[in-house]
Design a protein that fits this description.
Layout (H helix, E strand, L loop, with lengths): L1 H30 L3 E2 L5 E2 L3 H12 L13 H29 L2 H18 L4 E5 L3 H12 L3 E6 L2 H7 L10 E3 L5 H9 L6 E6 L4 H14 L5 E4 L3 H9 L4 E3 L1 H14 L1 H11 L17 E4 L3 H13 L3 E5 L2 H6 L4 E2 L5 H6 L7 E4 L4 H14 L4 E6 L5 H6 L4 E4 H14 L2 H11 L2 H15 L5 E6 L6 H8 L6 H4 L13 E8 L2 E4 L12 E6 L1 H12 L3 H7 L7 H11 L1
Helix pairs in contact: 1-2, 1-3, 1-4, 4-7, 5-17, 7-8, 10-11, 10-12, 10-17, 11-19
Amino acid sequence: MNDIVWLTMRRMRTPLILMILVYSISVFGMVHIAGQDAQGNPVDVGYLDAAYFIAILATTIGFGEVPVAFTHAQRLYVFIILFPNVIAWLYSVGTIISLFVDVQFRADLARSRFSRQVRRGNTDFYLVCGFGHTGRMIVSGLLKRGISAAILEREESIIHSMSLIDEFAHLPALAGDVTDRRLLDMAGLGQDVKNCAGVIAITNDDHANLTIAITSKLLRPELPVLARSETRRVVANMASFGTDLTVDPYTIFAERLHLALSSPTKYLVQDWLISVPGTELRDEITPPDGHWILAGIGRFGSRMAAILDEAGVPFTVIDVHPERVDARPGSVLGRGTEAGTLLQAGIGDSAGIIAGTGDDVDNLSIVMTALELNPDLFVVARQENPQNDELFDASGAHLVARRSQIVARRILFMATTPLLSVFIDYLIRQEDAFAEKVEERLGAVLKGRAPSLWTVNLVGAWSESLRAAALENVPILLQHATQHSRTQVAENLPCVCLLIERADTLMFLPGPDEELLEGDLLLLAGRESARREMLFALREPTALVSLASGRFQPRGSIMRRLARKRAR
């Protein structure tokens, strides 16, 4: 606001002084020139009449001469002051208009409006730096989970396009340098902003993301920082000063490919849990054993090569850079888009191929040419541009490394359900039998659609039923919380409890007879309807008590006291 006032006063100082000076002199002159009425009697022109006349004169409205027709002397004076007043007025109005279309002034207005929106918000929000395809997916996911966002983006056109989308039009958003400390301060890092839940840095520039992460940790070290990076050097740098989550999409995809190679069931369960709620569930995929071909061994391909080596899978590299080909004996020089190069790499006897170049068109060409030569191939493809989703879906690839989707999924579940990462880490370390058990339970309730995930902390309002049950000496079990509390016949809710955190204890995939205690933190997966019904039952003092005791409990506190006395 100070910038706006300063800029306004600086630009308007000269025209305002000129307009006030000309207007004052004109009014003063009109007052001191005597007038007369139709009978020749003298008439004094007051300051109000003079000020009114000069105003309509300067604005070229010209209602007439007031309070009576002017004398020749008055008309001569009006003729003299006419042009200075009109010029001063037009000069001032023109300066005001030019001020409002000035780029710097409009930018200051936008910053002031953005700062007010951020500070007047009364809900928790994440500061999201970067609003490309990945940013839109993340913000949309946050909004569906009841969490707002404040957005910083370099491209002004992207910010303008937000106003055309109902889902994002109400969010505070500002175009500018996302690494500017002043902008970050007004966007949520200022000490006066108490409801900022964390910072998400997902621009396409690793150095910008690193700068945002460092600035956030210095200004607000208590806030979680979730950042995107595609180079190992920046990932290590971010980890060194305590960035809470560094998302390297290529490394994440490589780890998931290794999981698919080693345990298809674990891969399937993990994919179900991180999919967009409501989307169709993926069927189990089983990458075949045998020789593979890796086309492109750059940033993405090098990670794929490391995973294939770790899994003991033999493979041949195709690359256009001679130094990369020389570094791995047996490699083939070329793009992989030509049938001759693929045949030289042994496509006919291969079990799978990874199209991992940095160009989507080349990767699509590699996939199509390879499948023509060997229709039984297991195909993995790298996709860079989100606008090519339909092309890769139609290409026949079994797995597609969609960079934006990988980053959005990982950041979303870390920001909204951090317990999920604990469960997935445990799932990966266990034997396949545990993954099969999870798959069986989820499959029974999901009905082919990806689940919603939610956490419930049994404290405060969410433990009303537990406190009411304690007064009745009735234990509340997990099976009671996962039953429909408003039906006459016992009906299980379509959800699965994946994890219970109790103090320092973690219970993975707990059984239905596990007793719930106040202070427990639950991680659940299932339908959105199950979440709503469960939250209602936990807040309603009598719902779970009625289920657990098998007898109806009155809702009023007085009637419940009387019922307890009768029971005694």
